[in-house]
Amino acid sequence: MPTKGEKDALTGRETTGHEWDGVRELNTPLPKWWLYTFIASIVFAVGYSVLYPAVPWLHGHTTGVLGYTNRGAVASEIAATAARQAPILDRIRVTDLAAIPKDPALYAYAVAGGKAAFADNCVPCHRAGGAGAPGYPMLAGDRWLWGGTLEAIHQTISHGVRNDDPDSRQSAMPRFGLDGMLTAAQIGDVADFVRSLSGNKAPPDAIQRGSKIFAENCAACHGETGTGNPDIGAPNLTAKISLYGSDRVTVVDVITRARNSSMPSWGRRLDPVTIKMLAIYVHSLGGGR
Amino acid sequence: MTVPAADPSHGEFSLDVPFFGDRQKVYPRKVKGPVRSIKWAVLIGCLAIYYIAPWLRWDRGPGHPDQAFLIDMPGRRAYFLNLEIWPQEVYYIAGLLILGAIGLFFVTSLFGRMWCGFTCPQTVWTDLFMWAERLIEGDRMARVRLDQQPWTLAKLGKKLGKHGVWLVIAAMTGGAWIMYFNDAPTVTRDILTLQASTTVYFFVGLFTSTTYLLAGWAREQVCTYMCPWPRFQAAMVDDQTLTVTYRGWRGEPRGKHHKGETWQGRGDCVDCHACVAACPTGIDIRDGLQLECIGCGLCIDACNEIMERVERPRGLIGFDTYANRAAHERGTTAHPRFIRPRTVVYVLIMLAAMGAMLAMVLERSTASLTVLPDRSPLFVRLSDGSIRNGYVVKIQNKAGIARTFDLRGIGLTSATLQIAEGEGPAVAAVEGVPLTVKPDAVATFHAYVHAPKTGQAETGFVLIARAREDGESVDYHATFRGPTD
């Protein structure tokens, strides 16, 4: 039988009526506003469950009358961003590449957009900021295999190097060692000569012999003085930086089997606006001419 | 007294026992006296500061807001009279918060919850709302009767009038809050002509509704249930702290007293419940210091009125210490000691915080230079064997005029500095690259430093930016990186 208002004799306060082994609990009621807040959150939960996806079924879930999904929200945000970017991207599309750097707003946007596209597509080989890696040219420096002007960079990105794109940069260094064009001793001498062009030390008689071999075999592409030719991707050998490394073993290896590395044709993968922005970004890295 | 034996007829639980307690509505009675007068003065002072401060003008020259106190969120600036705070300087607020917290501890250790009872916004606005309530519905007994009587047109009118006045006060409060974040005259006109932004209306609405709910409806429940301060105030209060105290040694044994009866063998408390009726949190101070007591001291005034009427000395309730109470139990008295290790430490911390803040304000420069080295590539080898490092250089110009800073580096032999602009590295420099920064702005540049290979992984050098206009100079200790081979 429920009792009404049973009081604890010591404190004079009501008890809850529970009893555990002779111990009774004083009733300390929660404030009503707490109860109302609890009820309000239940009401909120009901409303939320009706409006938004809430109850999981075995296959799928309730969709809610608003039809909201996280995926849909992201898609609409992406669409809104694309719509917001469309005007300036259109301006980049119609503006001549050389004219973009003269428009500060377009230039700033192109550098930022190019930076993002570079991070997505180019960083695996050329490293962040165009730092480069052995076999993958440094883009922030001042030595360019295929030319460092905005136009040249744009051409290289659009069609790539030594791939099946008919417009790609094409050239092939002969495999002087593997194809038996030079003996091992001759390759050693020419390597010594090439390394001396960028200030490395070597025996004078080896350099002497190597310079003759160079004049006969290499100067056609790399130039009489070894300064290279960007039209055919022949590197400047007098620069104190090297694509593959400037130690003797590496230079001998490059002459023996030739590397002839390639780069994809990005015109087939990216839209023209992105390629324009990439060219401007790469040009801005500090080595553009 | 014995505990009744367990009744076997008791069920596991009883539905008649209330699990949720109704709020015991408090009907504080109007009181007169020195404490009440101080409270009115504090109330008027605090509200005046709050409502008037955003309207004060302060000339900062053209292109700058002329509001004395303004937090410009979109512009990322805070203006306090002559001080213009940038987001990077928010640590001033840390100093203010330390001062505020320690100041609160200091006052509490001396006088108990004086902050709560006199200056806390919850108390000030509740007091203001109670004043409006008393004006419309009458004093304590009239309000109790009004709540108990059935609904009539007159009761409806009084209730509607009261809530209407409350809402007007609340709206003015919310509106005033907005004015600290907008130009006050402009935003007031915009609000009234319905041209203000949704954000403005949202925040006016938010602060209107919270003021109305907290000061009109929640009142003492905010202090008892929501506020964390009463929960740990005990850590600051000790036996030398002056708190609102019922001087039981004088008052007990209490009992009704009729005129002409002797005061011999009994206490001064006539058990009139005037102190209970005056209490805005509805407690009986004679039960001792308790969680709900906000230390407002209105029971002191209420009791003094009664003491004068029964011709007994005033001060049966007053600000007193636990030590004095304990001393009276031993038959002596104890004067409060204000200088104690606790209060001395609080003062020292406050002085240290104030000194640090003052030093920061006095040493505040109107320019700053930040240099972030490029993280990739860390350095670039150039064809001629030299090394180039890239840096993002940010120059903050906190002055009200555009200034041209000459940027140069010292400490690197044969080094040159270039600034990348538009189409690429353009400006070569020997004496310093002139960089113009707009007033009140941060300008970002990309700088290249060329130097011959040193063989050191890191070489320290200093970049200096010197303003041509006033010669102000700021420097940054940067690092030049290079290969070790």
Describe the structure.
The complex is a heterodimer of chains A (289) and B (485). With 289 residues, chain A is mainly alpha-helical. Among the domains of chain A are: 81-161 and 264-284, Cytochrome c-like domain (Cytochrome Bc1 Complex, Chain D, domain 2); 184-257, Cytochrome Bc1 Complex, Chain D, domain 2, CATH 1.10.760.10. Chain A is built from 10 helices and 3 strands; from the N terminus they run βββαααααααααα. Chain A has helices at residues 32-51, 70-94, 104-121, 123-126, 150-159, 184-197, 204-217, 219-222, 248-257, 272-284; strands at 15-20, 23-26, 30-31. Chain A has a two-stranded antiparallel ribbon. In chain A, a hairpin with a 2-residue loop joins strand 1 (15-20) and strand 2 (23-26). Chain A is elongated, with a radius of gyration of 36 Å. Chain A starts with 14 loop residues before the first strand and ends in a 5-residue tail after the last helix. The model of chain A has no long low-confidence stretch (mean pLDDT 91). Chain B has 485 residues and is an alpha+beta fold. Chain B has 2 domains: 21-364, no CATH class; 367-481, Immunoglobulin-like. In chain B, strand 11 (416-421) and strand 12 form a beta hairpin. Chain B has helices at 34-52, 91-111, 114-119, 121-137, 140-148, 153-179, 184-192, 198-218, 220-226, 229-232, 248-251, 274-278, 298-309, 322-329, 341-362; strands at residues 20-21, 69-72, 77-80, 83-85, 243-246, 317-320, 367-373, 380-381, 387-397, 403-410, 416-421, 424-429, 433-437, 441-451, 458-467, 473-481. The termini of chain B are far apart. Chain B is elongated and about 110 Å long. In chain B, strands 7, 8, 9, 11, 12 and 14 form a 6-stranded antiparallel beta sheet that branches. Chain B has a 4-stranded antiparallel beta sheet with strand order 13-10-15-16, with no helix packed on it. A 3-stranded antiparallel beta sheet of chain B has the order 2-3-4, with no helix packed on it. At the A-B interface, strand 1, strand 3 and helix 1 of A face strand 1 and strand 8 of B. Strand 3 of chain A pairs parallel with strand 1 (20-21) of chain B, so a sheet runs across the interface.
